[in-house]
Structures are given as structure tokens and as C-alpha cells.
């Protein structure tokens, strides 16, 4: 593992870092499901056509270019960040348009992914309408703190599956997702504890990530080295490539690290949630993502 990896100005020591284990989609759906149950994640190599993922990266950045986010004079697929001069208000509006775009809908519901999810979920897969796309500029402190996803989706089934999809290559330096090894068991324990303590809360607060029993924003921690130490485990990182898809359990603790890409490229990804359509659906996620929707 290429150290150091940092998040929120803290460095993860080499002994608390490990490698995410890849899964070849060709091993078959049963074996993939077993790995997901055991590890809390499966990192599916090359599930999507690489060239189409890169085309989509180009499309996204071409629609963000007007905001000043991208350096001019380069193929937008490279995603080279401009040093300054971003119109943040326009960037927010453009991002909200992009997550409502038919092209994005099509990317998230592309046949290789949907066919895979139907098989994985053993039925008809349902894709939550609220879908997130994130870009991270190099050299900034932005990095998703540690959390597990069920905190935000407590109003439906716990048999949810998140797909984290890098839109372009995301080498470790670019700050992709890191997973706390073996933490789906820890997340399950934390959730059980939350339920035990939340009986006094009004029903809408019991499913909210922002109730008085949760840390600010629903995060577990912003201190990644401390978490690995506390649970005596490691953060698993890797070089993601365009075409990869990671599925993670709603109890699996994950975070992102700082984008320190030496080539100055933006990290781009989407995270979307699938479940079996016959399981209970959290109705709060039936709308497109809006910044500040507090979900
Ligand atoms: O991409 C990120 O920084 C965070 C993604 C995430 O939290 C998720 O996929 O559940």
C-alpha cells in the first residue's frame, strides 16, 4: 500500500492500512454473494464497459466546465481541476441538474449493472431515486467521514446494497473509498445499540440520521486512524479503475481519503442504492437528491 493516506488532516499509519480484495465477476453469483456476506463488500473488477464509463466522465465534466471547475484546453475525460475561479453556486446547480439527467439515469440503470443486481438480489432490483454524485478537488480537505449507510436509510429494509462506482480511474492518491476491515459486524452492533437506546425518540427521529442520539451528520468519526486503532483493524484501500463497481453492505463502515492526485485530477464517483423491490422501501428516498435535503 502506498502510504501515506490522509483524511481530515490525520494520517493513517502503514500498519493500519491494507488492500481491498478484488472479485472477478466471472466467479459466479453464488460465490460473489458469499464473499459479500463474509467481507461486507465485493469489489467487482471491470463489471462495466470501461470506455463507456470514461465517456460518461467526459459528459459530466463537459456540463460542469462552465462553472470553472475544470482546467481549460484538456480533454474533459481527464478531469484536470482548475486552480481557482470556481463559481460554487453554479457548480451546485449544475450538479443538481446532472443527477436529474436522463443520461445519469441511464448510466445508473445500464443493462450490465441491472442484470447483475437482479441476479445478486434474487429477484427484481429496485434502484432508489435519490442518487448521489460526488466530485473531489485535489489539494482540498474534502473527504467523507466514517459512517455506515443504514443510518440514512432506516425507514425501509436493511437488505440494501450500495453500489459505489468510480467514474474514471481513482488511484489511492485520489482519495477513493476506504473500508474498515470486518466492520459490517461492528456496524450491526452499533445499529442494534442505537435501536435499544432510541425508544424514547419520536418515530420520525428514530429513522433520522440527525436525531439527538447521533453524532453530527450521522458520521461515526472523522478520525480514521483512531477508529482503526479502537477496533484493532485496518482501512482497506485500492486503485479503482473505470469499469469497477464496489457493492457494500449497509452496515459496512467506510470513508474517503483526501485527494492528493499528483496530476491534479478531480475524483468523480456515484453512490446509488439497490434493494429487492419486494422489500420495504424507505419512501424518503423517492425523490432526487437535493443539496441540504437532510437525508
Ligand atoms: O464517495 C464518497 O466519498 C462517499 C460514498 C459513500 O459514502 C457511499 O458510497 O456510501
How would you describe this structure to a colleague?
The chain is α+β, with helices and mostly antiparallel strands and 295 residues long. It has one domain: q2cbj1_9rhob like domain (Jelly Rolls). It is 27% helix and 18% strand. It has eight helices and 13 strands. The strands form three sheets. Strands 4, 5, 6, 7, 8, 11 and 13 form a seven-stranded mixed sheet that branches. It has a four-stranded mixed sheet with strand order 3-10-9-12. Helix 1 links the parallel strand 4 and strand 5. 2-oxoglutaric acid is lined by residues 134, 144, 149, 162, 164, 177, 254, 256, 269, 271.
Which small-molecule ligands are present, each listed once? 2-oxoglutaric acid
Instruction: Evaluate the radius of gyration.
Output: 18 Å
* Structural class estimated from helices and strands: alpha+beta
Classify the beta-strand content into a percent band.
Answer: 15-25%
Number of helices: 8
How would you summarize this macromolecular structure in one to three sentences?
The chain is an alpha+beta fold.
Amino acid at each position: 500500500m502506498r502510504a501515506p493516506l490522509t483524511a481530515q488532516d490525520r494520517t493513517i499509519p502503514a500498519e493500519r492500512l491494507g488492500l481491498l480484495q478484488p472479485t472477478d465477476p466471472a466467479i459466479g453469483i453464488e460465490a460473489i454473494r458469499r464473499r459479500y456476506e463474509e467481507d461486507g463488500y465485493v469489489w467487482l473488477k471491470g463489471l462495466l464497459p470501461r470506455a463507456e464509463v470514461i465517456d460518461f466522465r467526459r459528459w459530466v465534466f463537459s456540463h460542469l466546465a462552465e462553472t470553472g471547475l475544470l482546467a481549460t484546453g484538456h480533454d474533459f475525460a481527464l478531469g484536470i481541476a482548475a486552480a481557482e475561479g470556481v463559481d460554487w453556486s453554479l457548480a451546485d446547480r449544475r450538479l443538481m441538474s446532472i443527477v436529474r439527467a436522463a443520461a445519469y439515469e441511464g448510466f445508473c440503470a445500464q443493462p450490465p449493472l441491472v442484470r447483475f443486481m437482479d441476479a445478486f438480489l434474487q429477484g427484481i432490483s429496485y434502484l432508489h431515486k435519490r442518487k448521489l454524485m460526488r466530485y473531489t478537488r485535489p489539494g482540498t480537505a474534502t473527504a467523507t467521514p466514517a459512517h455506515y449507510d443504514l443510518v440514512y436509510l432506516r425507514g425501509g429494509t436493511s437488505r440494501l446494497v450500495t453500489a459505489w462506482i468510480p467514474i474514471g480511474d481513482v488511484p489511492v492518491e485520489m482519495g477513493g473509498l476506504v473500508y474498515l476491515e470486518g466492520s459490517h459486524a461492528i456496524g450491526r452492533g452499533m445499529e442494534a445499540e442505537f435501536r435499544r437506546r432510541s425508544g424514547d425518540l419520536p418515530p420520525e427521529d428514530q429513522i433520522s440520521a440527525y436525531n439527538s442520539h447521533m453524532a453530527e451528520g450521522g458520521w461515526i468519526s472523522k478520525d480514521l486512524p483512531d477508529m482503526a486503532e479502537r477496533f484493532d483493524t485496518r482501512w482497506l484501500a485500492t486503485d479503482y479503475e473505470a469499469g469497477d463497481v464496489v457493492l457494500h453492505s449497509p452496515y459496512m463502515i467506510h470513508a474517503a481519503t483526501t485527494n492528493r492526485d499528483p496530476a491534479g485530477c478531480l475524483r468523480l464517483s456515484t453512490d446509488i442504492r439497490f434493494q429487492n423491490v419486494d422489500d420495504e422501501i424507505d419512501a424518503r428516498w423517492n425523490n432526487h437528491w437535493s443539496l441540504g435535503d437532510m437525508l
